[in-house]
Every structure is written in C-alpha cells, then in structure tokens.
C-alpha cells in the first residue's frame, strides 16, 4: 500500500534523508557534506511516499520569501522510477505550498531533469548555470 505524507516531523525528515542517501550519495556519488545541508533542520517540510513502511520517494519545501518557495532534493529510489512518483511528490508539495499561501515555486533543475519539470508546468526563468559541476537551470511555476 502506497501512502504520501507531507509534514515536518522528525521521523519524516529521517525518511526523506534515507531516500536521499540511497539516491544521491550511494547511487550518484554526491558527498555527504554536499547532499545534507543547512536546510535539513527542525521545521523543514518534506513530502515522502511510503511503500508500506519503506520510504521510496521524497522532496522538500524551502521558504524563499512570503510568496516564493523552492522545491529541492526530489528523489525516487531506483526500483520505483518510471511510476510517476516524482510527479506525485511535486503535486503534493504544490498543494501544500498553496495551502500556506505561496504564490509560486522554483526548482533548480539539472538539465537532465528539465523536461520532467516542464511536464509538471514549470518554465525556465534563468540561463544555464553550474551547480557543483552540473549544468542547471532555474524553473518556476506560478500558482493560479
């Protein structure tokens, strides 16, 4: 049974960090210091999809200002990819952001993921830039 939960509870953060450890650190080789940053603190909101008790996909919401939030660290365990889990995480984060009166969201996307975010309604609002040696672009979606 799949369940999506979004909140800022400590156990939720642990579940999100588990998925990120598997995907970004172990699979992609990103250093621990780069992956786990100053935004992983009490109060940070995470969306996590669970398959029974196993966290399989995640994303986090960071407040930029009173009207703008940023979705970061969107990840799905390898064996669960291609099943629209990432899209469900994005949708849940958007609904949560709207409930908190944010007007728009940004995502700093690796170019390899840009098409995925465009399918979710995001549009490029920056030039391509380098982030930790990876070409990225900022995408944005205004909530209507």
Main attributes of the structure:
single chain, 144 residues, alpha+beta, eight-stranded mixed sheet, globular
Brief account:
By secondary structure, the protein is α+β, with helices and mostly antiparallel strands. Helices cover 30% and strands 37% of the residues.
Which helices and strands appear, and what pairs or packs with what?
Layout: E1 2-7, H1 10-27, H2 32-35, E2 45-51, E3 54-63, E4 68-76, H3 85-99, E5 104-110, H4 114-119, E6 123-124, E7 129-131, E8 134-142
Parallel strand pairs: 4-5
Antiparallel strand pairs: 1-2, 2-3, 3-4, 5-8, 6-8, 7-8
Q: Which spans of ≥5 residues are poorly predicted at pLDDT below 50? A: none
Between the first and last Cα atoms, what is the distance in angstroms?
32 Å
DSSP strand tally:
8
- H and E order: EHHEEEHEHEEE
Largest sheet: 8 strands, mixed
Describe it.
By secondary structure, the protein is an alpha+beta fold. Helices cover 30% and strands 37% of the residues. Strands 1, 2, 3, 4, 5, 6, 7 and 8 form an eight-stranded mixed beta sheet that branches. The termini are far apart.
């Amino acid at each position: 049974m799949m369940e999506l939960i979004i909140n800022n509870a400590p156990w939720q953060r642990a579940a999100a960090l588990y998925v990120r450890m598997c995907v970004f650190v172990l699979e992609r080789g990103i250093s621990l210091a780069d992956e786990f940053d100053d935004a992983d603190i009490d109060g940070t909101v995470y969306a996590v999809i669970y398959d029974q008790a196993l966290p399989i996909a995640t994303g986090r919401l960071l407040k930029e200002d009173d009207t703008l939030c940023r979705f970061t660290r969107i990840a799905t365990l390898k064996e669960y990819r291609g099943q629209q889990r990432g899209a469900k995480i994005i949708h849940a984060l958007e609904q949560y952001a709207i409930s908190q009166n944010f007007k728009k969201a940004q995502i700093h996307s690796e170019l390899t993921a840009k098409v995925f975010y465009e399918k979710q309604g995001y549009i490029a609002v920056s030039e391509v830039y380098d982030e930790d040696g990876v070409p990225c672009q900022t995408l944005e979606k205004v909530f209507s």
